[in-house]
Design goal:
alpha+beta; 24% helix; globular; binds guanosine-5'-monophosphate
């Protein structure tokens, strides 16, 4: 079910629980700013989620309220994950959903990294 991308932040969301170690994930990368793990329901041969360690509901919240160091650290982590997974040569897509019309389901900011095949046009048809 789609959620709002706006605060208040829900500490019970699934990615908050993964960050606290209450639920396992298939980890790809972790540093001071970010955790990256494989999506449980992959939409491409490579489908990795990168999430900040901070409590942000979506890109809208993160871009407005995260500190400069946090934004830089997170952004670099996304690029590093793609590079370390060897995605740069053939290319990849970075996507983030904000709120109801985007279909955002988890109210903790995350970017999707898709790769491993030609990814087609940017937008699918409306559901
Ligand atoms: P959104 O629609 O919010 O942009 O994307 C949420 C993503 O989180 C979906 O692609 C979904 O498959 C993934 N997801 C939901 N629950 C879990 C989980 O418990 N573990 C992992 N690894 N991915 C999850």
């Amino acid at each position: 079910m789609a959620v709002s991308g706006l605060p208040p932040y829900d500490d019970g969301n699934i990615f908050a629980r993964i960050l606290r170690g209450e639920i396992p994930c298939n980890k790809v990368h972790e540093d001071q700013w970010a955790l990256a793990f494989h999506d449980i329901n992959p939409q491409a041969p490579v489908h990795v989620l990168v999430i900040p360690k901070g409590r942000y509901c979506s890109f809208a919240d993160f871009s407005a309220n995260a500190g400069a160091e946090e934004i830089a650290g997170f952004t670099r982590a996304v690029g590093k994950v793609a590079k370390d997974l060897g995605l740069e040569e053939q290319g990849y897509r970075v996507l983030t959903n904000v709120g109801e019309h985007s279909g955002q389901e988890v109210p903790h900011f995350h970017v999707h990294l898709f790769a491993g095949r030609p990814l087609g046009r940017m937008l699918g048809r409306p559901a």
